[in-house]
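User: Structure tokens for this complex, please. No commentary.
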Amino acid sequence: MPLSAPLIEMRGISKSFGAVKANEAVDLSVAPGEILGLLGENGAGKTTLMNVLFGAYAPDAGEILVQGKPVTINSSADALAAGIGMVHQHFHLAPRLSVLENLLIGISGRSGRIDRAGGLARLGEIGRQHGLTLDPDLPVSALSVGEQQRLEIVKALFRGARLLILDEPTAVLAPTEVDGLFAALRSMSAQGLGIIFISHKLNEVRALTHRCVVLRHGRVAGRVDAPASTTSSEMARLMCGHEIVPPARGPSTPGAAVLTLEGISTSGHAGTPLRDVSLFVRAGEILGIAGVSGNGQRALADVISGVRAADAGQMTIAGKMVSRFSPREVQALGLGRIPEDRMTTGLVTNLPLADSMVLPRIGTGAFSRNGLLKPDAIRAFAEAQIKAYDIRCPGPMTRAGALSGGNLQKALLARELAFDPKVLIVSQPTRGLDIGAARFIHEKFLDMRTKGCGIIVIGEDLEELLMLSDRIAVMYEGRIAGTLASADATVARLGLMMTGAEGTA
Amino acid sequence: MSVVLEQIFQVGFLAAIIRIATPLAFATLGEMFSERAGVLNLGIEGIMLLSAMTGFTATSLSGSLWLGVLVAVLTGALMGALHALFTVALGLSQHVCGIGVTLFCSGLAYFLYRLIFGQQSVPPNIKGFETLPIPILSDIPVLGPAVFNQFSLVYMAMLAIPLAAFVLYRTPWGLSVRMVGENPRAADSAGVGVIATRFQAVVLGGALMGLAGAFLSMAQFNAFTFGVVSGRGWVAIALVVFGRWDPWRSAGAALLFAFVDALQLRMQASGLGHIPYEAFLMLPFVFTIVAMAVMSRSAVAPSALLKPFRREER
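Assistant:
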């Protein structure tokens, strides 16, 4: 553990957005060579705090010291000048520009021209130091997500960052890529760089960091001096303020197949197409679909929910052949769907919540007659669901976009479950939700399983999939790389299959 | 058709293409700079008209052609700044503000023109630019008199194209322009001033549009009329798409449009008189629509085009 003076120190940082206090009197410091974990649930203020440090937001109160001297950071340019680099959760790269161009942006060359030779030399040097190699002339759009992240790290080092902030860097990576990232971070730490590692994956934090700060409701809820020897449940308690007990999954007695796919292939330009995908889900069973994002999961969800037609292959729902692949057809056959992106495909953010909750069934007799809506029925339905699912909102006429992620997800779940689907397909069901809301969603899935619904959960969080699923299928490059019974599945084994290294039928 | 083919390979025809392409090239490069930075400038039609008017007026009053050009360029830059104020600094809708700028500039041009020159039965004219043959080069057969015996503004346009490409692809400022048009958040986190860069690009674009206007009233027509621009600004917007936001391709698109326009002029004048001349007038625009339909499928606009940048917005 390094003992030198802090590289960076934040004292009493407060920041409010309107009435919401995102940060309140937060103290934090990082020493040279130290990897500091910053933990907290969604909305705990981690990202806001780092945006203050990086100059994106001006703090309402508090000061920032760089190597003991107070500094004012009003912009990312100030932050870079102070030696602070940040790798955002959503990469800040221009896809159609090359790797080198993305590196050289904002760096003025000699005699007003872009200094290509100097840039190449520096890129090579950083690559050798930390094992972060990249092809300088490839357009960013041709890089994998892991490589784009590497570019973001190189970009920060390129600008002479001595402190590197990484906002949930592992959320987008496959388990093997995570190992590579950790190796690079340890190499940087060994050379005296400070690192702030933001995550809510406790096992990663315990494996990587030297020290942790836990935020809750914008305040420091606790500090952990030896993360490696602290248990995950202790840290979880600091994050949520109470114990979290995972829901129990009873034994299942699966019935007949409620959804089958036989040799489904797709084409088209939106994402990775499916290639000869066959799978089935039985009543009372949860099938997990694991895989690094972008390996055909979206196409799979689109085909099953009737948004996209298959070019080849057959699909049945509850024993009936799907012929036209339209959302209305698969819904009539008994399919419920919770899409990956709540805000854009889930509901209409500018319309009242009640309208969004009946949207898929707006043409049915329940909510319209002779081409006219039945506003009373719509309102009554929404009110009943709001009560049943404890959706926190001012009322059914609230603009849907004003709800928090957890409440939106509950609303979507309520909308589908109200009509007793035989099959339910959900993508990333708890992404962006805090532990409490995620717990609620998990319980509902397990309830539905007991009631005989077949559920497909597409996700990237392996621990969640392992907890929920009876079987887990792994997708790789548009194919099913293999299916494991959850008793045989481990994170390590699934991780290998996700990179195409192992195929077990 | 042989009449038409004969026309094409005449020196006069080639010279006409270059002349017609010049204002389009300036306007297209101007719009391209603006759009590469993420700002659509629908004010182009009005900016060209107002610049044509102010340039003409300055020359008419002072007798100096280059003073007129300077005034036109400054007018364009100023109107570019107005558009940038609304769309970049205040982050308002680029469509609405652009149309507003065009309406404002057109109205202002008519108003000032009437105020200065009153109502005259014969519109006043100036002694505009004269052709400036370049020694030696203009003696090359066919190509020489067509390309190197032109107005000095034409030569400026020829130089502006490689210069624009150099600035856009080889200088840090050009990289910043491309970056703020693709991903302003990335540029911001790299310490590039997004607002400043966009502002500069839109002002530079406006200045180039001003140059286009100056060419129309001071070299091509030597007079200002209210129809002096007649849709060339709108065409430039299409040519930017056709040229895939690249200086060389955009200039090529301007040349192609000019070719069709020169062709229809010749066809009007030639023996095909039984066809109403309006049919020929349509040709360049039909060409534009067809070209757009063919090209725009594969053309990819700058990702952040039309998107205002506000830092504290997630």
